[in-house]
Amino acid sequence: MNPSGEGRVTSTADIDAAASPRENTRFKDKKDETVISVSGLTPSAARYSRLFDVLVVAAVVTIFAGAIHLHVMLTVGDWDMYVDWKDRQYWPLVMPVSMIMFPAALQAIFWVNFRLPIGATVGATVLLIATWIGRYANWWIWTGFPFTEGVPSQALAGALLMDMTLIVLRNSLFTSIIGGFAFGFVFWPSNYSALAPFYLPVEHQGMVASLADMIGYTFPRSNMPEYLRIIERGTLRTFGSSVSWVSAAFAGFICIFMHQLWWRLGLFASQATFLKNSDVVKSFMGIKSSVAS
Amino acid sequence: MLLKLIKFAAVCVAFIAGVSHAAAHGERAQEPYLRTRTVQFYDVHFSKTDVKVNERFELTGKFRLMQDWPDAVTPPDIVFLSSISPGPTIARVETYLNGEPARQSFAGLELGRDYEFRMVLEGRTPGSSHIHPSISIKGSGPLVGPGQWVNISGEAHSFAFPIKTMTGLQIEDLQTFGLAHAVGWHLAWLAVAAAWLSFWLARPLILPRWLVLQKGREDLLISLRDTGAGIIVAAIVLVMVFGGYVRASAEYPYNVPLQSGLNRVAPLPASPAYVEIKVISATYDVPGRSMRLATQITNKGSEPLSIGELTTANIRFLNQSLPVAMADVDPSYPRDLIARTGLKLSSDTPINPGETKEVRVEATDAVWELERLVSFLTDVDSKFGGLLLLYAPNGERVIAEMGGPIVPVFTELK
Ligand SMILES: [Cu+2]
Q1: How do the pLDDT tens digits run along chain A, 293 residues long?
Q2: Vertex A117, ends A112 and A121: CA angle to 5°?
Q3: CA A216 and chain centroid, separation
Q4: Do A211 and B178 touch (CB under 8 A)?
Q5: Is the entire prediction scored with pTM above 0.90?
Q6: Pairwise CA distance, residues A236 & A240, whole Å
Q7: Helix-strand-coil percent breakdown of chain B, rounded to 5?
Q8: Among A47, A83, A200, A243, which would you mutate to test the B interface (most chain B Cβ atoms within 10 Å of its Cβ)?
Q9: Are strands B383-391 and B397-405 parallel, antiparallel or unpaired?
């Protein structure tokens, strides 16, 4: 027993003894109280579990903001870095297919273990925050690019729809088919609303350019030149001005499989598994004094 | 201990401060074969080296695409005329290649031919910026021209880039236009996400939910009310997505997609082919920092020609005894790229029409080391290239490509 009631705690009964009945939990809702009582957590353990919640939220935000941002930068990189890369064919195809991966994995982890329909929204939110931090720190402070050149896209619309599909249908396969498709499909329209002003036409040197093209041209990236942009090559071009909707539908189709794959990867990665140590390893670790035989 | 920390901090600050002023941006790190055997820049001129924020200046010049293009470098099939600067410290206003608008890439440039470029640039970020012209080649990357320090004075915040759209909209500044609109949408989406997340984060989260789930009481965790909330949020999202799209399409009916077509451009008229240079032997004296060439030059033209300059990798070795060659040095050309000792010739007399003359050419200067051009010693093909500039008495200039295998000499020559 710890007479001061502080510090070392050996059982939850100790905490209960120390806690006053009125401040057992912070939840006002009756349902939440029921969850606590059914969980079997003593009131004080529940209070500590709330502290644990805060720590988990902090860890999820920092770790996944970094991880998802890195992942998107590595897989689609330039397509989202510059405003004059946000073309109507490959951008709406490549971006959501890559952006769905971590949100799908988080969705699985949060849903299967905790029945929380928030994983995709968490992933897309921390990605957007991390992206803006990156644009501010790297593009503006460090290299002095105007914000317009590095304005990012968002995956929140699709992520929200994916979480809504999950809570309504409560099934990973249907979430892949409907939510995953929605994630890919709404990427183009939901980002076009935000970026439409950048596609206004300008005449420059006797040629037509979009404002996005003008921004990329005016503020030079030392040899990140426009010839590297992969824009409207291949047969999708034949769809003309409807090409973005074809891309959006195709992105949705790919996202169905991406969602299911990353849902499974998320579950696989969040398993707690144990490997049986051999006697040799045990002796190295001091668990066993010496190797028999 | 504290003193040590202060000392360490002082060293760090000094290092960072020193680097930020001394560093250019890695042009010397490019392999010598890229710089001596691909694009040779000449006649490069900076109209100003001191500009104010928002003040325009021009960067003009010519370049020759070398005939002996190395195998390791993709030929100039898709080419973009660009400038190199430490970030967008300058704004690009207009660019031209042989008078053609160069806002897009060009297809199919020809080896052995010359091209002329003109870039209209504008000061943006105050400070000293190392500015180069550059030719970016798909598959090969940027091949840079001579870099000059341009001092930009004034206030950073006074820079603005106004532009008028074809729909008649006058935009005050390309740096900020459309940003508030995009950020507004992002904030709107974040607000919906925050509402959904706080709806769940306000409840018991990780441990209690996991324990309840283990006990098979899923019914306590997701209620009908939650499903209803999900349906409402889904409806809001769909209205935002498609309503926003319809509104944006109505507001901007004349939008165009990103443009990326390739243009074509004819090279400058071929320079007179009446000088033929045969390199009999070429050596690079490592301890002496000297390139020595034994050449056989044939003048097939009608005017006597004097050798005025050897240029390679933007470095100029000038025949200092030939006034016309010296007069060809633009005052704006970076001084650190002009070899002080110049070009030594075995004979200064002109090569007469019809004559074939053996001339030994010596280019000695520490600049070979400074510009890190001696690593051709470690190249797999150990070749060099460059342009020889010859002048006729009537002022005509003939530019001839020369090059071939080069043999390093590691011990002092006797
Ligand atoms: Cu430089």
Answers
A1: 333 434 444 444 444 444 444 444 566 678 888 888 888 888 888 889 999 999 999 999 999 999 999 999 999 878 888 999 898 888 999 999 999 999 999 999 999 999 999 999 999 999 999 999 999 999 999 889 999 999 999 999 999 999 999 999 999 999 999 999 999 999 999 999 999 999 999 999 999 999 999 999 999 987 655 556 666 666 666 666 788 899 999 999 999 999 999 999 999 988 888 878 788 888 887 777 665 54
A2: 120
A3: 28
A4: yes
A5: no
A6: 8
A7: 25, 35, 40
A8: A200
A9: antiparallel
Q: How far is CA B123 from CA A97, A221, A284, B128, B371, in A?
A: 40, 15, 66, 10, 27
Residues A113 and A103: beta-carbon distance below 8 Å: no
**Do B165 and A207 count as a contact with CB atoms less than 8 A apart?**
no
Nearest Cα residue to A83 out of A239, A183, A192, A186: A192
**Which amino acid is residue A88, in one-letter code?**
R
- Residue window 152-181, chain B: list those with CB within 8 Å of chain A: 161, 163-167, 169, 171, 174-179, 181
Structure tokens, B220: 């306590």
Q: What ipTM does the predicted assembly reach?
A: 0.88
| B403 close to B66: Cβ distance less than 8 angstroms | yes
Please enumerate in sequence order all residues whose Cβ is within 8 A of that of B19, keeping only pairs 6 or more positions apart, or say none: none
Q: Which amino acid is at B79?
A: V
Instruction: Return the structure tokens found at B16.
Output: 């960072």
Nearest by CB to residue B208, choosing from A41, A161, A208, is A41
